[in-house]
Amino acid sequence: MFYSSSLKAMLDVLSNFNFWSILIAATFVIFIGFIFQKKSLIFPDWEKVVVKIILYVALPALALKSFLIDINTEQIGESIALAILGIIFYTSLTFGSKFFFIRNQKSLQDTLGMSVAFSSAVYFGVMIVKAISIEKSAEIDLYSSLFLIGFWIFMYSAADNIMKKKRFDEMEMQKALVGKKEGFIKLIKVFKNPVIIATFVGIFLWLFQLIPGIDLIKTDGKNYSISRIDKYIPGVNQILSILAPLASPLAWFSMGSVLAKSEIKEAFKSKLVWWTVFVKNIITPIFCIILFVIFSLILRTSTGVGITSLSFVLCVAIVASPTANTIVGYAILYNKEPKVASHVGALTILTGIINIPLWILISSAIGATSLFS
């Protein structure tokens, strides 16, 4: 039974037309970005502008839109579990990933650790899983937004702080994040980030639906909560629907540019870079799978329902995605091993074309077992 259900899940993925379509589309857009950079068809440092558009416009729109759906009380337990899992996962990697590079100098530990910890989550893993399960697109957006709460908080606080510092130890970081007044102010600034603001506004609007008697908005023959602003404020749904999809193509295009600027031949010769890619592509997804199996068993024992296979496959795909452009940007901005960070980013993009589908297949097989719902 285990073999047959797992094999069927893998075959379903491999035979999915949309799965291959999104992989080809992503590869093609990356290639266009590569050509544009090689041929100097774009102005210098153009990607900095693109990154700002993604971070300040597209991703906040995507985060808010993902929560503008009808709440399902049966999803509450799993939703809380996903948010907790995300925070545990990104806390562990933010402060633990450097130990994979303990024999290297401090600056390399920091840069490579952050390259391992943070992925281009929304642009690859989420998009590929959505292509496989188009009919569950709204659920996928919701699950990914919840799991990535920890991602956004730590990438714009701890990761930024780690990459800024030339020397760093655990006590110093703990003081910077919790104890010192300066650290507290920095932490407050993190919550001014548009993506984080949109995420928490979205969570509030989503949970607000639990209040009895607020289904006051009637449209399309159905009553909606007053928190469903997309149903009665003209233009909200259209604006979010136009802006949200911009994130992926713009990010893929800029990744092609990063590849063109990287010294690929030099990256291929570096054992340290390949070790980092191995940790990023193999060890972190395994760690994610272990965490999800444990939490799913706990949920199943306490509530009778485990984590769904859809959210499990989604989060594994997120973790298996290439290194986040933001981390490479930090390395360049703070002059902290920028060449190595670029090499890791470039190779994880190249290997991601194989790595993400591989982990989707593996997690689909595991997700088809009785461990998940």
UniProtKB/TrEMBL annotation:
It is a multi-pass membrane protein. Keywords: Cell membrane, Membrane, Transmembrane, Transmembrane helix, Transport. Its main location: membrane. It holds the Pfam family Mem_trans. The chain crosses the membrane at residues 20-37, 49-68, 80-101, 113-134, 140-159, 190-211, 239-260, 272-298, 310-333, 345-372. It comes from the Bacteria. GO terms for cellular component: membrane. The keyword tRNA-binding does not apply. GO terms for biological process: transmembrane transport. InterPro entries: Mem_transp_PIN-like (IPR004776). It is found in: Membrane. This is Malate permease. It comes from Spiroplasma monobiae MQ-1.
